[in-house]
Amino acid sequence: MLACSPTPRDYGVTIVGPVADDPSWQARSGEGFDKSAFAVDWDQQIVTCPGDKQSISWLPNTYPKNGAVFEARFSAKDCTPCSLRPKCTKAKREPRIIGLQSRQHHETLQTARQHQTTEDFKQSYAARAGIEGTHEQAIRRCGLRDAAISGSRRHACSMSPPPSQSIWSGWTRGGPALQEQKRDAPTSRPCGGLPRVIANSPPVSTFEQDHIDLAQSTRCQQRRAA
User: Fold this and answer.
1) 104-108, 141-145, 170-174: least confident range
2) End of a domain among 115, 147, 164?
3) Are 51 and 6 in a shared domain?
4) 46 near 58, Cβ under 8 Å?
5) From residue 127, how far is each of 9, 121, 152, 161, 163 by CA, in Å?
6) Are 49 and 74 in contact (CB under 8 A)?
7) 0.85 exceeded by the pTM?
8) Is residue 34 scored above 70 in pLDDT?
9) Which residue has better confidence, 126 or 226?
């Protein structure tokens, strides 16, 4: 989140992850002038367009729900005859209006979008992508969002999985203590009527439990989709 942008400066922590791409048609077309093409002078409160024309007003945004704090408006006499207009706006008569977040958020977002296109970012993000893939497999394959407690309600599907991740990793690595706990645990049916492992169950083989976990995860997804 952009609200976390001060963390490298304040806490010495860098958040590694992609930010959302610019959703504007200018950015999606690959040929238009999105916000990154405009130079913003925050001190003078002036925005300069790719055609080297400057904004004529800088006002508070009148519709804060769109996330913008300021609006910079260009002159109609500059925008209307401009040869670059088709790449800038689809408005028939109105000039281009640039909505801006706060300076910190705007600059952080633009810097992050540029950085995530580099090879350095891809190499740094590769490690996180591997961890997220492991979490996704644990959630979908072993149902770690489901409580393994007899008689529990399925509201536990909203539980956070990280505390259970180490247990799942131990199972897949075949840790003897966890394998023994797994063999000695009973089964409950918190989701979809399929058995889940908890304490003091009859012995369950690894092969059987793998199929049970996969079936339960599939049934949970089907019920949530319904």
Assistant:
1) 170-174
2) 115
3) yes
4) yes
5) 23, 11, 35, 19, 20
6) yes
7) no
8) yes
9) 126
